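Review session, final week

We close the course with one last complete record, chosen because it touches almost every idea we covered. It is FAD/NAD(P)-binding domain-containing protein, a protein from Favella ehrenbergii with 395 residues. Go through it on your own first, then we will talk.
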Amino acid sequence: MVWVQPQAYFGILHQHIKALKMETGTLSAMIDTWSKIENTKVTKLDPSGNQVTLANGKTLSYKALVLGAGFDHSAEFVPGLAEFEEGPDTNNVFVHQLNDKRRLERNFYNGAIHQGGDYINYSPAVPYKGEGSDFYSLYYESLLRTDKMMGTAAAGAKIQYWSPNKFIYNFPYANEVAMEECEKRGVELYLGWELQSVREDAHSKVAVFKNVDSGETIEKDFVGANINPPSRQHQFLLDSGVCDSTGMVDVNRYTLQHRKFENIFAIGDCITGETTRTYTGAIQQNPVVKHNLLQYLEGRECNAIYDGYQYMPFYLGTSYGAGFSHLHDFEPASTNDSVPHYGVFSNLYFNYMMSNQQKMGEKYTNFAKSQGPPHYHFAARFDELEHNEYLQQRQ
């Protein structure tokens, strides 16, 4: 069985992975002897021949394949952004991308230094990596409001949210709540504008935007920005024939099994469907893929069902938060927007949210021999399809 994912997240957190060689015996003991990590890119997928070709020239054959390839996501997709990224954090331009642990340190003070002018929060066109987790505008507004009260920021300083999408969240319920909150708190929304490039002139930073409807281009000066660069489907997937007309891996949205190649399963950002692509969603898909993969290899029915659960944090300030969650077709989950947006419960939820997301990510990316979240100590079990309550409710 071959599992393809965009990067070895354990390696990012711990910097230890090099094929099977680990730095310590303790870490080596976490890896089963039959498993192998090839820390390189896939350049070709042949689903008919059950083979993948790697950038190092190796060809791997498989009985079953799991595609967790994510997106091709890079600052290089916005001309000029990589130059800002390579500079010090004092240039006040931050890239929303987790591809190196050093970025966590560089981005630590994003949004905190804003004494005047306009600060930009930018999300690219959907689908993209980090959907639902890159809306920091209300968090920034909270910081700026405090600075204005203390007299350390100009009265005319503003927070602006830009995106080529006509929404903040693809989830309609969440989008309505977020837009209403922005209106109340003076966050300016510029929807339908795609970022073309960024640069630094002699006396200012400049972003070039293009209107997605009219094609009009404008130049916008800014003092700081948090930019999520565009995401693209990996070319080897597009060339392989496993994608649908939208360029996404064509899987059954319930079983996550490919519609044409039954020995291929997919997980995470790369799969087809109208949804929000979140890290929490990929974690929820993991036990479904695991169960159905084992069922397939044993010649049994793939009966694990993914209900479409996705979770998005809603950062209301430096110590207040809420959360949105939905199932397939943007049906609100039972825990959707479950706390007030102010007061002690919002503060408690913020602390829970930050701690829970960090701990869940850590458990998902380590090599501890558990079942993995959300089932740490036991394997998820699933009803037979004819008895699945979720499917029965949707008939």
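Two points worth writing down before the exam:
The CA atoms of residues 243 and 249 lie 4 Å apart.
The two ends are 34 Å apart (CA to CA).
Good luck, everyone.
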